[in-house]
Design a protein that fits this description.
There is one protein chain. The protein has ten helices and eight strands. A hairpin with a 2-residue loop joins strand 7 and strand 8. Helix 7 crosses helix 8. The chain is of the alpha+beta class.
């Protein structure tokens, strides 16, 4: 989701990987809440999602009418009951007011409203599939602005090959780029353990991934090199540390074994004077022997 940190070189590298046959599945990134989509400039879209905006993808608020904001006096009453009633649920269900009982049972027992399913169109001869995305956004591609279906000028030559929509808009768009494809969804929770078994969610996951290897990229921030090496190649890191220790052991100077002096070999001061004088006499330094005496 944090794609605002992607550099142009990283974007180009990733899209070139797709163009050479890679398949990318990515969640659409809506604009921040402080920026209205209708007032956003190209710079705002580019800064928000440098990966998908060059492909003509923008994310907008869904026009689905929200029922949760409608006033409900029964719900408001239940929310106020805990102030003066020990068990608001029992009070509500055992009330003599039939309308209150029905409203309470509806709020407690009825399942919450779910979004309308999407019809997934993957080809002319393929049967339509159905998926359900829990999202408040829809996806728009720039090629849909042209009534004749001609794709406007884009930084990358993409083509819409599949999409999933309902009466309110598209929430899944698949783009063909070279030999690869990019699948953009507004929500990835359809593949959670709780929702994988519904509709054609499992089929969609198998269709997108097939038997190819899958990488999950949760962040574009690169860890430090030392940390990355330790995570990716711990054996190499241990070997480098051992080599460093051996090199230091070889290079650092060390003292040899210490040998204690023997008392029987020690000489007194006169013996040292006699030895030094004899050395000077043998090396023709006789003048140095008597110079001090003369002074």
């Amino acid at each position: 989701k944090h794609r605002g940190m992607l550099t142009p070189n990283q974007v180009n590298t990733l899209l070139e990987w797709v163009q050479n046959g890679g398949e990318l599945v990515v969640e659409a990134r809506p604009l921040p809440s402080l920026i209205e989509a209708s007032d956003a400039s190209d710079a705002d879209w580019q800064d928000n999602d440098p990966l998908l905006f060059p492909l003509g993808i923008t994310v907008w608020d869904s026009p689905v009418p929200s029922e949760s904001i409608e006033e409900d006096p029964v719900r408001d009453l239940i929310m106020a009951l805990p102030v003066f009633v020990d068990s608001p649920l029992q009070y509500c269900l055992q009330s003599d007011n039939e309308e209150l009982r029905e409203g309470c049972a509806r709020l407690v027992c009825d399942a919450p409203p779910e979004p309308a399913p999407l019809g997934l169109h993957v080809g002319d001869n393929a049967p339509d599939r159905r998926v359900q995305l829990f999202s408040d956004y829809v996806i728009w591609h720039d090629s849909w602005d042209d009534e004749e279906g001609e794709t406007p000028h884009l930084e990358w030559p993409v083509e819409v090959t599949a999409y999933a929509d309902n009466d309110y808009g598209s929430q899944l768009v698949q783009l063909g780029l070279g030999s690869g494809q990019i699948s953009v969804l507004t929500d990835l929770s359809l593949w959670s353990n709780e929702r994988l078994l519904y509709f054609d969610h499992a089929w969609l996951l198998a269709w997108l991934t097939a038997d190819e290897p899958v990488w999950f990229v949760r962040s574009v921030a690169m860890p430090p090199l030392a940390q990355w090496l330790w995570l990716k190649a711990p054996a190499l890191g241990v070997a480098l540390l051992v080599l460093l220790a051996l090199w230091l052991w070889y290079r650092i100077p060390r003292q040899g074994p210490r040998q204690e002096a023997r008392d029987e070999h020690s000489r007194d001061y006169l013996q040292h004077l006699h030895a030094s004088g004899y050395f000077q006499w043998r090396t023709d330094q006789q003048a140095a022997l008597v110079e001090v005496l003369r002074e």
